[in-house]
Design brief:
The complex is a heterodimer. By secondary structure, chain A is an all-beta fold. Chain A is built from no helices and eleven strands. Chain B has no helices and eleven strands. Chain B has strands at 4-7, 10-14, 19-25, 32-38, 45-51, 56-59, 62-67, 72-77, 86-92, 100-101, 105-110. The chains are: A mainly beta, B mainly beta. Chains A and B meet through strand 4, strand 5, strand 9 and strand 10 of A and strand 4, strand 5 and strand 10 of B.
C-alpha cells in the first residue's frame, strides 16, 4: 500500500539559509499534519491543512510557513534557519479531519532529517 | 491545551514476557487515542488505536484499554519478541485532529 512520501530524506543547511520540505500524502487523504521531533523527544505538532486550508496551528515559528496544494501535497518552508531547527520533520496524512468530524488514523512518513551547521 | 504523560520512560523485559505502558491525559474533550511504534530512522507507525466510546481493543498480541473517568489508557503487549524493541508513543486527539504525544517509552526485549 502507498505510504506518505517525504523529500528530501536528509538536508544540510547553514544558519540563515532557507529550506523547503515536501510531503506527498497517501492517495485520497485530504489532510496533512507537520510535526517536529528533536533528539530523544516526542513529535511536536506544527501545523495542519484540510482541503488546502489551514486547519490548526501549533508551535510553528513565524519563520516557517506551509501550504497544501491542489493535488494535496504539502510543503513546509523554513527561513532564517537556526541551529535549534535541527530536527526530524514528519508529515502525516489522514482523511477528513475538519472540526467536528471523528478523528481518522494519521499515517506518518519517514521524515526529513534537517541538520543546520 | 492537552497534556499527555507516559510511563515508564524505559522498559526492559525478557522475550515472552508481557509489557505494559501507561498514559494519562488532561483534556476530557480528547476522544481518540492512538499508539505508535517508532524504530530508528523511521516515522511513527500506528499500531493500534481506541476511541472514547470503547473500553478495550485487541489486535493479536497488542491490546489497548481506556478508562475515560480516570483519563488514562494503556498499551499491553503479550509474548514479547526482540522485534518489538522500539520507542512507543501514546497520543491523544480532540476533534480538530492534532496529536499531543506522550514523551515515549523505550522498550527493550531481551532474547
Amino acid at each position: 500500500a502507498a505510504g506518505v512520501i517525504q523529500s528530501p530524506r536528509h538536508l544540510i543547511k547553514e544558519k540563515r539559509e532557507t529550506a523547503t520540505l515536501k510531503c506527498y500524502p497517501i492517495p485520497r487523504h485530504d489532510t496533512v499534519y507537520w510535526y517536529q521531533q528533536g533528539p530523544g523527544q516526542d513529535p511536536q505538532f506544527l501545523i495542519s491543512f484540510y482541503e488546502k486550508m489551514q486547519s490548526d496551528k501549533g508551535s510553528i515559528p513565524d519563520r516557517f510557513s506551509a501550504q497544501q496544494f491542489s493535488d494535496y501535497h504539502s510543503e513546509l518552508n523554513m527561513s532564517s534557519l537556526e541551529l535549534g531547527d535541527s530536527a526530524l520533520y514528519f508529515c502525516a496524512s489522514s482523511l477528513g479531519a475538519q472540526a467536528g468530524a471523528s478523528n481518522q488514523p494519521q499515517h506518518f512518513g519517514d521524515g526529513t532529517r534537517l541538520s543546520i551547521l | 491545551g492537552e497534556n499527555v504523560e507516559q510511563h515508564p520512560s524505559t522498559l526492559s523485559v525478557q522475550e515472552g514476557d508481557s509489557a505494559v505502558i501507561k498514559c494519562t491525559y488532561s483534556d476530557s474533550a480528547s476522544n481518540y487515542f492512538p499508539w505508535y511504534k517508532q524504530e530508528l530512522g523511521k516515522g511513527p507507525q500506528l499500531i493500534i488505536d481506541i476511541r472514547s466510546n470503547v473500553g478495550e481493543k485487541k489486535d493479536q498480541r497488542i491490546a489497548v484499554t481506556l478508562n475515560k473517568t480516570a483519563k488514562h489508557f494503556s498499551l499491553h503487549i503479550t509474548e514479547t519478541q526482540p522485534e518489538d524493541s522500539a520507542v512507543y508513543f501514546c497520543a491523544a486527539l480532540g476533534n480538530v485532529g492534532k496529536s499531543t504525544f506522550g514523551d515515549g517509552t523505550t522498550l527493550t526485549v531481551k532474547p
